[in-house]
Structures are given as structure tokens and as C-alpha cells.
Amino acid sequence: MQHVSAIREPLITGGKTLHDVTQDICYQVEAKPNIRWIGAMSVSLFFLGIFFYSVYRTLWYGIGEWGLNKTVGWAWDITNFVWWVGIGHAGTLISAVLLLFRQKWRSSINRAAEAMTIFAVICAAMFPVLHMGRPWLAFYVFPLQNTLGSLWVNFNSPLLWDVFAISTYFTVSLVFWYTGLVPDFASIRDRAKGPIAKFSYSMLSFGWTGSAKAWSRYETVSLILAGVSTPLVLSVHTIVSMDFATSVVPGWHTTIFPPYFVAGAIFSGFAMVLTLMLITRVVFKLEDYITLEHIALMNKIMMVTGSIVGVAYITEFFIAWYSQVEFEQYAFINRATGPYWWAYLSMMSCNVITPQIVWFRRVRYSIGWTFLLSIIVNIGMWFERFVIIVTSLHRDYLPSSWAMFSPTMIDIGVYVGTLGLFFTLFLLFAKFFPVINMAEVKTILKYTVDNGPTYSGNHAHHAPATTHSVTPGVPASAPVTYDKHD
Amino acid sequence: MTKRFALGVFEDEDVLLHAIDNVRGAGVKIYDVFSPYPVHGIDDALGIERSRLPIAAFFYGMCGLAFALWLQIYTLGFDWPMIIGGKPHIALPAFIPVAFELTVFFTCHGMVITFYTITGLYPRFKTPVMDVRSTDDKFVMAIELDENNSALPKLTQLLRENGASEVNQKEMTKK
To answer: CB 3.0–4.6 Å: which of A53, A359, A386, B34 could bond B140 by disulfide?
Structure first.
């Protein structure tokens, strides 16, 4: 009845039955929060407090609380914006692009990755809104009639394209994510014991029953959403890069920016997915769903995109020389050898050199190394944006205007605070929502289990048609040796 | 109105698919099948027509594109023309990003709203289900019965023969 490949590793280990999947995932939602969750939540709430305090200072006293000056008018705020938006991209890549490419392994990570996208975009949106100085007038960015106080918005401006790109991206990701959640909420609803849980999950599940026609439409919707999200995710970071590329600032005015930014976004996004997943799988005991195979595959994507980013760095340098434009050449020499050499060095070593260790099989399959690497890449990608933004601005055409940027405590507070906001939202999600897409994992289960029949009962006598000889009752976390292939 | 159903509970999707073929072959009309995940091939087995949602999605996308182009050309070209960077008032290449984003926006939201509406999905206080295990690990085939359950013994036998692990009865009240 089941088909187990002799050469491919199973996607889900531990010989899970359909009921086991429901049990394992719903257990997290139904159980009382464990001590590790409460600990993590306390730390996140502390950082969220820092966020609120920094935002209060920024709004009450104005943007002067930040370290910006006349020369460097954009610094940490836009750096953080681009960093957060980039992180979001991996979620859409996993849920949309990998769906179109029929990468079945995405099933057990797509839910959390999409949640990460949504929360990362929320964090990203904080920065342009706060930088407006008067966020209560934020609606001026939308094309509203002139009597409301502004002229029509300028549709020639990449900053306005960003408004449309980010709002479309956020809302599309949100409905994509929610539509996927509906059947899983139904599973929780049908198991719920308490009246509050019954009521809330009935509201959340929209009356889903899993009828054949609903599933048929659901699959059509998923496919089309994936189809439109794929160009969408590429367009979002393309437009973000155009905030820079359409200007005439040396170091920004380059045609390579859109693909270079998209690759960088996926690179940093996968690093963040890995950071989150490695923690989630341990805290929620999901080792059978997020296996070493998943980690290795994500590592490979990280290495490919990291190498693309590396090529882009070198291409930029080459083109600066080849263009024979003095200012362009200076901008790049200044990046590498000027006062911000340390930021450039951090970027190069974190993003280009370090990820190359993933060529080693042992690193790819090692949880410790992967975790370390994912943190390094997150740091490196932050420095990339900082280098691009600040080093291009701090020495402009007029040497008398040259300046340095140094962040204030409030700058740091807002940035660190958004990390608190992000993790608070993610922890709430992980506690009250099914962290793995149960329905999708169940579809791949039958063809990928490594031992035992997928269901018990009438057919318990049925011998598993598998080439693996596995002892029944092998513990879920039994060590798996990966020696057959890659 | 109260409706009565015979529920065949299946443990496996392949068994279910064969059973659907045989039950329909025996001339019995299947009311609906409930499964914990989308079963491939069930559309053909049940004779469900291909969804026309993609057509709707295309239509919504075209609406979005038309709206975006109208908005940009009307506001910057006619309502309050401004010279920006020495470019023409209607600078079409610069309008492409917003046109694309609004196309995606309308496609996605139009289609999702349509999906929720036609499938009857909206937040409710209570959700009546045929068998709560159908969102967990069971595949449930529902067949409508008449008032005195005359077809039940025959149906039970038919479903049992085709691999149903249990056959239950359920009354559903529909407003």
C-alpha cells in the first residue's frame, strides 16, 4: 500500500500515522504552556517593552532622537526595514515557489515560515512609518483626494511603489497563510474540550468540514495564490532595491540591484527560518517533522543564494572600475578601505566566506553548525544593508559635508525592540496556532513513512512494502544515519 | 429540516477511492465525502467538475490592472498634471510596478473572497460536523437516507464490503 523509496530519505520520520500527526501538532496547542515557552516569552516581552519605550521617545521628541544628520539622512531605519522585509521573503519562497516546484519537503516548514513572513513585514513596516515623524498622517501615502490635505501621490516615485508592494505583499501573505490554517483550525476545533477553545477554534475555522468539493477548491486557490505570490515576492524586493537603484547616488545607481537584493533577501530569510526552526523543533519536539534532511536542504538554498550575493558584491566592484566613473570608483574603494572598513569586512566574511563551509556534508547535517551559521548570516545581511546605505551616503560629492553616522540608544532600542515584537508574535503563534501544516503533512505521509503501515486497525496484519527493515516501535527520535546518498 | 445520513468510515484513501467507484457503480448517490486532507483523484471519482475559480481570478486580475492604470493616468495625467523629473505626465514605464502590484492584489483578494463565499466559509459559533474524526484521520462518506431509513441495511452491507471500518447513522439539522 505504501511506497518507500530505497534511495530517498523519508520526509517525515518516526513512522507516524495520520492520527499521530494530529496528536503531535495539536498537543502543543492544547497543553499548558511549558516552562521554556514562558521563559522565551518573558525575554521577548522585555524587548517589546524596549520597543515601546523607544517608539515613545521617537514620537514624543521626534526623529532627532535618532543619530541621523544632514549627510546621513537614512541609516538604521532603512537598514532595518530592508533587513526585515528580506527576512520575510523566505516564507513566501517556501510556500509559493517550492509549491510550484513540487518540493514536498516544504510541507512541514511552510506554516511557520509564512508566519515569519507576516511578522517580519510587520516589523519592517514600523521603520518607514516611524521615520515619517508624524505617523498619524501615514494615510498620506495612499492616493486620496486632494481635499484631505495632500496632492495626489507621485506614482513615479519608487518610495510609493514600495507602499503598494509592501501592502500587497503583507495582505496576500496574510490570506495565503490564513487559508492554509483553516483546515487545521477545524482539526483543533473537533478535538477541543473546553467551551472557550471550542468557540474560538470554531470561529477561526470558518465552519470548515473537509468536504471533497471544499478541498478541490482549496487546492485550486492554493495553486493560484502560489502562482501570483511567486512574481509578487520577486517584485517586492526588486522595488525595495529600486528605492536605491533609481537614485543617482554612487554605489546605489546600479542595474544589478534587483536580482542582487532578491538573492540577498532569500539568503537572509532562509537564515532566519533556520534559526527559528532549529529552536522550534527542539522546544516543541518536532524532530520527526523537521528532520536533518530539511535542515540540509535549507542549508543548500542558503549556500546558493549566498554565493549569488557574493558574485554580486564582486560584480559591483568590477563594474565600478570598468565604468571609469570616478565617483563610482571612489564609493567602492571607500566602502572597502574607508572608515567603515569594519562593516564591509563583516559583510564579506559573514555573507560570502562563512556560508561556503556548507559544502562540507558534516556541516550541512549538523544542528550546531547550522544554528551558528544562520546567526552569522543574519548579522552579515544586516551589515550588507548598512554598508550599502551608510557608506554611500556618508561621503557625498562635497567633502565639507562628509560625516560619520553613530546610532543613539533610541536607534538601537527601536531595532532591538522590533526583535522583541517579532519573537513575541512568533511565540504567540507557536502556542495557539498549529505550527506545522497538518493537512499537508498528512498528504505526504503515506508515501514517505519509513516503517509500519500508515494506519492501524483492520489492516494491521498488512506487511509494510518497504525495503527498509525497521524494528517496529523504534522510538521517534532514533538516530538516523545518512550514509546512502545526499 | 432534519436530514438523515449513513456514514461510511474509511481508514485509507485508496480504499476510499475504490469504495466511491463501487458505491456510485451500484447506483447510490453520494452526498459528500469528508477527509482530513485533499485526496488526489477524488474529484474524478465523485464527478466533481473542475473549479472555475481560475477564470474568476483572471477576471479580478484584469480589473486590478485596469483600475491601476486608470488611477495613475487619471491622477497624474488629467486631474492634477505635474512635471516630475522632466518626464511626461503619463510616464507609463513608471506606472508598471503599481499596476503589477494592484493586479496581484485584486487577483488574490477577489479570488479568496469568492472562495470563502461559494464554499460557505465564515466565522461561526458552532460547526456541526458529520464525524469529528474526519478532520483527524478518518475518511467519511455520507449518503443521504429517506425518512424511514429503508436503504440502510443494504447500504451498510455495500459499504462494509468495500472496506468501511464502521457504518454509522447521523441526523443533521439544517436551517
So the answer is: B34
Chain A's closest residue to B134, CA to CA, is A210
Angle subtended at Cα A341 by Cα A238 and Cα A344, rounded to the nearest 5 degrees? 30
Average pLDDT over residues B1-27: 83
- Going by the DSSP 8-state scheme, the letter that residue A211 receives in this structure is B
In this prediction, residue A408 carries a pLDDT of 92
Which among B34, B84, B101 is the nearest to A168, CB-wise? Answer: B101
Whether residues B46 and B28 fall in one domain: yes
B86 at interface of A, judged by CB pairs closer than 8 A: no
What amino acid occupies position A114? E
Residue B46 lies in a domain: yes
**CB-side neighbour CA atoms (13 Å) of A197:** 17
Q: Which residue, among A281, A258, A251, A254, has the nearest Cα to A393 in the 3D structure? A: A251
What does the pLDDT look like over A307-328, one tens digit per residue? Answer: 999 999 999 999 999 999 888 8
- Specify the CATH number for the domain of residue B26: 3.30.70
Same domain, B63 and B101: yes
Is B132 within 8 Å of chain A by CB? Answer: yes
The position carrying cell 478532520 is B135
Cell numbers 494506519: residue: A455
Q: Are residues B115 and B76 in the same domain?
A: yes
* Sole residue written with cell 469504495: B19
Question: Does B38 contact A235 at a Cβ distance shorter than 8 Å?
Answer: no
- pLDDT digit string, tens, across residues A235-247: 999 999 999 999 8
Query: Are B68 and B112 in the same domain?
Result: yes
Reference B63, options B97, B115, B110, B114; nearest CA is B110
CB-nearest partner of A152 from B80, B85, B94: B80
Residue B124: inside a domain: no
Write down the pLDDT at residue A261. Answer: 92
| CB A478 within 8 Å of CB A466 | no
DSSP per-residue codes, A301-349: HHHHHHHHHHHHHHHHHHHHHHHT-HHHHHHHHHHHHSTTHHHHHHHHI
Instruction: Give the pLDDT score at A32.
Output: 84
Residues B63 and B107 occupy one common structural domain: yes
What integer pLDDT is reported at residue A448 of this predicted model? 46
Residues lower than pLDDT 70 in chain A: 1-9, 146-150, 446-486
Flag whether B111 is in a domain.
yes
Split into its structural domains, chain B has a count of 2
The answer to whether B120 contacts chain A (CB < 8 Å) is yes
Same domain flag for B22 and B70:
no
Q: Which of A313, A22, A306 is nearest to A184 (CA)?
A: A22
Write the ipTM. 0.91
